[in-house]
Amino acid sequence: MAISRKYQGIIAITISALGFAGMNFFVRLSGDLPSMQKVLFRNAVSLVVSFIMLMRDGDTYRGMDGKSWLLLFLRSLFGGVSIFAFFYAIDHMVISDATMLNNMSSFFTLTFSFIFLKEKISWKQAVLILGAFLGSLFIVKPQGIGTEDFFPALMGLLSGVGTGVAMTSLRALGKRGVKGPKIIFAFSLFSLLITLPFAIPVFVPMTFEQVLCLLLAGACATVGQFGVTIGYRLAPGREISIYEYTNVIFSALLGFVFLGQIPDRYSILGYIIIFAMAFLMFLYTKRHGDQQG
Question: Mean pLDDT across the chain, nearest whole number?
Answer without folding.
Answer: 84
